[in-house]
Amino acid sequence: MSAHIHIRHKTNKRTDSLCIGIITIPHMKKTKYGQTHIMKAYVDWFEERGVRVIPIPYDTTEHERYFNMINGLLIPGGETTFIMKNNTFIETVTRFFELSLQEYFPIWGTCFGFELLMSLIGGFTKFKKYPAQGLYPIKICQKSRMFGKFPPRYVDYLENNDSTSQNHDYGISPNDFMNNLHLRRFYNILATSVDNNEKEYVAAIEAKYYPIYGVQWHPERQISGPFIDFFISELKKNKHTCKAPYLRNTMKPHKCVQYPEHKNLLCYFF
Predict the structure, then answer these.
(1) For the chain, does the N or the C end have fewer beta carbons within 10 angstroms?
(2) Would you call 19 a catalytic residue per the annotation?
(3) Distance from C-alpha of 228 to C-alpha of 256, rounded to nearest angstrom
(4) Which of 218, 242, 256, 267 is the catalytic position?
(5) Which pLDDT tens digit goes with each residue over 6-32?
(6) Residue 254 has pLDDT above 50, yes or no
(7) Distances in Å between the alpha carbon of 3 and those of 43, 136, 157, 194, 198?
(8) For domain 15-269, is the CATH number 3.40.50.2000?
(9) pLDDT per residue over 178-227, tens digit each?
(10) Known catalytic residue: 111?
(11) Residue from 111, 242, 256, 267 carrying the catalytic annotation
């Protein structure tokens, strides 16, 4: 199968009333544009389908106000070791996580965000090395809400092509995951992959009883329509009302100067 598979997407009639909150990522070093950012790829992933993005300052003290403005939350990627030491960031995400358990409120974690979702439940702050940079297939482990309605040809593409854009240094093995009582009670492992050294790690999870999802790779950078369409279907189940302009209509992105490996990509700075 060609790696250039195309999936036709249906126009979503209700997305113009939906908002996703995205936590801003603090920088290790100050930049000339700002001290936090959201990569443009995340914004485009949602706003190209009519879902408005609301940036949530990682150091906000207004968790409930932001929570009631949005239909779900995205925790993006970032420098794992640096952000895991940022207590303010961890406390903010923890508060949103706690609020989400009181109603139907979807949360999505990508890369570092995926790791943080496991850390909050698993009770650990350090991850083992699972470096993976580049495109890799994934191995889907079981039936799930996330993959349940994917077209069979897209599932085949995910499993039999270099289909997922991996860019991380850390992760968790399936054995370590299953040996953690809290993780295996709260989440299901949906998929695994292998790192640059052929070591297997957990690549996708979903909570058993809550709309909480995480992937170790970056679907916002590639062919990933079924993933975003699934998460939008989850956002629709939240009852919050949203009124906000499109972020990309109100701000100008700049090059992601804080990421040497991504300096040609664009970020919104705050």
Answers:
(1) N
(2) no
(3) 23
(4) 218
(5) 344 444 445 668 999 999 999 987 788
(6) yes
(7) 24, 11, 7, 19, 21
(8) no
(9) 999 999 999 999 999 999 999 999 999 999 999 999 999 999 988 789 99
(10) yes
(11) 111
